[in-house]
Design goal:
With 542 residues, the protein is an all-alpha fold. Helices cover 66% and strands 0% of the residues. It is built from 28 helices and no strands. α26 (492-504) packs antiparallel against α27 (512-524).
Length: 542
């Protein structure tokens, strides 16, 4: 049976990669006045230019100005039915937005938007685009019609329409996906100080979508976006910008690395509810980066992110609970959070959940469940899980013993640098278990593990040098590796073999006193063979 030394993943996982910004979310058209000149001013102008119904429009304008929206709607209806563009535009907006005593009515909004849009009104064209894109007002979703209306408004310089048109190209909705066209339209909107477009433009630079990748320009556009006023209905996007700025400062990409600035931006985003920022803020508190270390604050923020379903935060919270960092130690709750994270496919959580089942820590021991979770993590390439899955196959725990499968998973893990897997693979080759016996392969894998400081591998490597198997006999090298195991790990077996070399004079000058010195060190550690050696050198009979 191979020695079972489980390498439980205990490290806090720091900073999930910056997520690529997608174009799923088109900007809601309401309340549109946050982004334009006052509709009253625009409507008054168009109402005056459109003689028909101008007086009724002006009456509606004055009623709306004194917050008498019901009267305003009546006057706008009179003007709109005479073809007054400004009135049609206002009804499009007022029915779409609702409130102020006016029931939201997308069918009415659609009807008046269509009339105004057909007269060339950019605002109404944009509104129609959103309605078709979202399937509002009882109409069927139609990406091609949405694209058509967005384009009409965008060509008139309407920033929201330019942004949404960019989103259609980025997603390939109603048109073939074209990152270059998306970039062009995002840029037009961004240059009009539309913050959501500035955000997407920065992301295009970050990921090289339709433009040459450029971290510096990504940071600059995100910084512009963060500096603009954002209305509450798209605060989630503002928080994402702030998170990206924090990550840029934390990684030093596009801007000089600065943990203090990273902390500040993470805090802004976290206060707006961004789970990734909350998770990273927790890590900053745990590590004392940009702020004094505070394990309780770390748990506070990590838990907020975990409660929102952030898989990395759920794993991190499990680690805090498992170790009692900033919170009372609780294996049962740790397992619950590992499971939540693992069920989202988070590989480190899968590994830790496997360990919990394997060790019966926080949950009833279940070797089959341990294997189940180790396999899920191993198939994602997690080297610790690969080693432990190999160990389960080698020892027949939770599944039928299978040396070939054990070797397969040990090799995958060993090739990623897992020291225990490297040593275990060396043992398989040395013993000819599941593979043809091969001292050279054993020597190679022992050496890899020995160079990482594994004492078992150092002693095994020294032994191969001493007896000349898998490599030329070399007592000096043997002594070197024995001394490493002895000096680093106070390993009694290393003391014993060093004593043997001094007693025999192999690789060193024969020296009884040195032999006794090393045998005594081994004996003090409880090695019975060493005591027998001491007795023999001192002339004592067994």
């Amino acid at each position: 049976m191979i020695n079972k030394t489980a390498n439980l993943v205990l490290a806090i996982v720091l900073f999930a990669p910056l997520g690529q910004v997608d174009a799923d979310d088109l900007v809601s058209p309401l309340p549109i006045r946050q982004w334009t000149k006052s509709l009253l001013d625009l409507g008054l102008k168009s109402g005056e230019e459109n003689v028909a119904g101008a007086n009724d429009f002006r009456a509606g304008y004055l009623a709306q100005a004194r917050d008498d929206y019901q009267s305003a709607v009546k006057f706008f209806h009179k003007a709109a039915e005479q073809g007054n563009l400004g009135a049609q535009q206002h009804l499009c907006s007022l029915y779409g937005e609702g409130g102020k005593g006016i029931a939201q009515d997308f069918k009415q909004s659609f009807s008046w938007c269509q009339k105004a849009a057909e007269q060339g009104d950019a605002f109404s064209q944009q509104m129609l685009g959103v309605m078709y894109a979202e399937g509002l007002a009882g109409i069927s979703k139609n990406d091609k019609l949405a694209l058509n209306w967005y384009r009409k408004a965008a060509n008139q310089g309407w920033a929201i329409a330019q942004f949404n048109l960019g989103g259609m190209y980025a997603k390939g909705q109603g048109v073939a996906r074209d990152d270059k066209q998306a970039f062009i339209w995002y840029r037009k909107a961004a240059e009009q100080e539309f913050p959501a477009a500035q955000f997407r433009l920065g992301s295009s630079y970050k990921w090289g979508l339709g433009v040459t990748q450029n971290d510096k320009l990504a940071f600059e556009w995100w910084r512009k976006a963060a500096s603009n006023d954002w209305p509450p209905f798209i605060y989630s996007s503002l928080a994402e910008v702030q998170y990206n700025l924090g990550l840029s400062y934390q990684e030093g990409k596009g801007v000089k690395q600065n943990d203090d600035e990273a902390y500040n931006w993470y805090r802004k985003a976290a206060d707006l509810g961004n789970a990734k920022a909350q998770r990273n803020l927790g890590i900053f508190y745990f590590q004392g980066r940009g702020v004094l270390r505070d394990d309780k604050q770390a748990v506070f923020w990590v838990r907020k992110a975990a409660d929102q379903g952030d898989a990395t935060a759920q794993f991190n919270l499990g680690v805090h609970l498992q170790n009692g960092w900033g919170t009372p130690q609780n294996d049962n709750e740790a397992v619950e959070w590992f499971r939540k994270s693992a069920e989202q496919g988070y590989v480190n959580a899968e590994t830790n959940l496997g360990f919990a089942y394997e060790q019966g820590k926080g949950i009833a021991r279940d070797a089959k469940q341990a294997v189940y979770w180790f396999r899920k993590a191993a198939e994602q390439g997690e080297k610790g899980a690969q080693y432990n899955l190999g160990l389960a196959y080698a020892n027949g725990e939770g599944l039928a013993k299978n040396q070939q499968e054990a070797i397969k998973w040990f090799r995958k893990s060993a090739e990623q640098g897992t020291v225990l897997a490297q040593f275990g693979l060396g043992l398989f080759y040395q013993q000819g278990t599941g593979v043809p016996q091969d001292d050279k392969q054993a020597f190679n894998w022992f050496r890899k593990a020995a160079e990482q400081g594994n004492s078992d591998a150092q002693i095994s490597l020294g032994l191969l040098y001493e007896i000349g198997r898998g490599t030329a006999q070399n007592y000096v090298e043997a002594m070197k590796w024995y001394r490493k195991a002895a000096d680093q790990w106070q390993e009694p077996r290393a003391y014993l073999v060093i004593g043997n070399l001094y007693e025999s004079g192999h690789g060193v000058e024969k020296n009884k006193e040195q032999a006794l010195f090393w045998y005594r060190k081994a004996a003090e550690k409880g090695n019975a063979d060493a005591q027998a050696k001491i007795d023999a050198l001192n002339g004592k009979r067994p």
